[in-house]
Design brief:
Blueprint (H helix, E strand, L loop, with lengths): L1 E4 L4 H12 L7 E4 L9 H6 L7 E3 L5 E2 L2 H9 L12 H30 L7 H19 L11 H16 L10 H11 L2 H4 L5
Parallel strand pairs: 1-2
Antiparallel strand pairs: 1-3, 3-4
Helix pairs in contact: 1-3, 1-6, 4-5, 4-6
This protein binds glutathione (GSH).
Length: about 200
């Protein structure tokens, strides 16, 4: 199977971390692509009309996206511990944790587009600060999160770790660790895993 990817994308990183954690990393051929909202890649758009990465194309030619669906698809391909709990409260807690990590990423990636892609004279400070408020509010909730154990390896903790890694990469001045000792400790431990080491953004 082929994965349209960029090494800087935190949503791609989610998929690759899950692939490493489940032993599937060697089954995936990486197809590099440079795509942005304003400069989309036309070949990627044939596989995914939304034009976003990650997009997975199976050996049968089926396109699978977005990161949530790709991760769940990969989790169905191995015999080890499941990254998506099968049912009940545990499942929906893990999925909600994933949704919060994805929400942090949507806001942070949006800020990156606003401040990096949009011409300076058109940038909207209030929009940026409002997106960053979503990030800080979510991190504050995650600091005392009881919905899913972030010390365990599952789709929720993988997504949160990738979100923290992205903030460190793109928003170093934000200093997300400040006032959040539990998330800091979780991230330090998680970052030592091979899956995280092998997928560090460039
Ligand atoms: N909800 C999607 C978000 C993916 C996403 O936003 N990817 C960005 C790169 S980090 C992208 O492809 N942006 C190009 C665009 O928006 O056209 C997922 O979970 O995969």
């Amino acid at each position: 199977m082929k994965l349209w990817y960029s090494p800087a994308s935190p949503f791609v990183r989610k998929v690759l971390v899950l692939a490493h954690e489940t032993g599937l990393q060697d089954e995936i051929e990486l197809v590099p692509v440079a795509t942005t909202v304003v400069d989309p890649d036309s070949d990627l758009a044939k596989a995914n009309p939304v034009g976003k990465i990650p997009t997975l194309v199976t050996d049968d030619g089926m396109s699978i996206f977005d990161s949530r669906v790709i991760c769940e698809y990969l989790d169905s391909l191995h015999d080890g511990d499941r990254m998506f709990p099968a049912e009940g409260v545990e499942r929906f807690n893990a999925l909600t944790t994933q949704a919060m990590g994805d929400g942090v990423l949507d806001a942070a990636v949006g800020v990156r587009y606003e401040t990096f892609l949009r011409p300076a004279e058109k940038q909207w400070d209030k929009w940026v600060s409002s997106q960053m408020r979503k990030v800080t509010q979510s991190l504050d909730v995650l600091e005392s999160w009881r919905g899913a154990n972030l010390q365990d390896i599952h789709i929720g903790s993988i997504t949160v770790a990738c979100a923290l890694g992205y903030l460190e990469f793109r928003q170093p001045d934000m200093d997300w660790r400040k006032g959040r000792p539990l998330l800091t400790q979780m991230y330090e431990t998680f970052s030592k895993r091979t899956s995280m080491q092998e997928t560090r953004p460039e």
